[in-house]
Amino acid sequence: FRIRFYSFEAILEAAKARVEKSQYTTVSGYYENLRSVIYGLAVVGTNEKNPDEGLYGVISLSDLKEVIGPKYDQIEFVQNTKEFYITVANGTKGILAADGSTVIKQSEYKDIKLLDEENKVYLVEKDGEYGVLDRLGKVIIHAENDKIGYDIKDFTVEDIDNPALLFKKCIPVEKDGKYGLYNLEGEVLLNIVNDALGCVSNQGAQTSGNKQNVLIIPSEVGINGIVYNFNGYYGIYDVNEEKPVIPPACESVYAITKSGETIYYFDYNGVTFDLKQYLLDNNLANVKPEEEKTVENTEMPDATNTTNEQPAE
């Protein structure tokens, strides 16, 4: 058999020639929309002389039939999910699938963005506030928050793929200067009462041997954890167990890198603890190494305290 390879430019020109045989003569020039031709679809408009003033729809290049009728002010093709983001006359947005079926109905949201491709969750905006919807348009987090996600510019120890979905499980939320966490089912993991997520120990360059800022605790330490601050004290939330593994009682949580090895620490009552060793000693690690030291448990406040109350002095 013979395999043929075509350049994108050749595919695009063939698509435009095909569209000319339909009732439409305008193909959206937006780059992402042009990429829809790879999948046998074309975003077409109704105003040849001034496309910005026309309405847009989508046709199938195989039979030139309408997949999405030309009734939208704007259409944007999203290649990752093979979906079309649509904008109607009142400025609200929705999402249609490649077959024209409705993913998220255009209604009250002024903006919609894909939050996570694997889990198919979407960030939505309404009246300047933000929420999260699932693939069926069901509300996970109501659009009543100042921000979804977290600013990670101060945290460089670990590579964070998506600051809006930590460990692909936890959604950080900010409201009135306070922070919390939700899961993908819309359940509250940490109430929105915390002063910050992460611990900033070093405002300057994070060189070898210095304390480094920490937002997440990686699995090699023994848990998948998220550091949070409540009333000036730091705790660590265990993502897998969905509860604080260390309550907000620590003065600091940080990492130090020496000779290419990064070790995580926390300070409690003026004493510094190796976090990994503490988790092992107290049977709190999710995955334990083959050989484990047997030592007396180190006393700490009750880790089952999930109310975010300030520890007693």
Keywords:
313 residues; mainly beta; five-stranded antiparallel beta sheet; four-stranded antiparallel beta sheet; 3 helices; 40% strand; elongated; disordered C terminus
Rg is: 25 Å
- Average pLDDT confidence is 86
Helix content: under 10%
Subunit arrangement of the protein: single chain
The SSE order reads HEHEEEEEEEEEEEEEEEEEEEEEEEEH
Strand content: 35-45%
Name the poorly predicted regions: 288-298, 303-307, 309-313
Total strands: 25
Largest sheet: 5 strands, antiparallel
Structure description:
With 313 residues, the chain is mainly β. The protein is built from three helices and 25 strands. It has helices at 8-19, 31-34, 275-281, and strands spanning 26-27, 41-45, 56-60, 66-72, 74-78, 83-87, 93-97, 102-104, 111-116, 121-126, 129-133, 139-145, 147-148, 171-175, 178-182, 188-194, 196-197, 211-212, 216-217, 225-230, 233-238, 243-250, 252-258, 261-268, 271-274. Strands 17, 19, 20, 21 and 22 form a five-stranded antiparallel sheet that branches. It has a four-stranded antiparallel sheet with strand order 1-2-3-4. The radius of gyration is 25 Å and the shape is elongated. The model is unreliable at 288-298, 303-307 and 309-313 (pLDDT under 50).
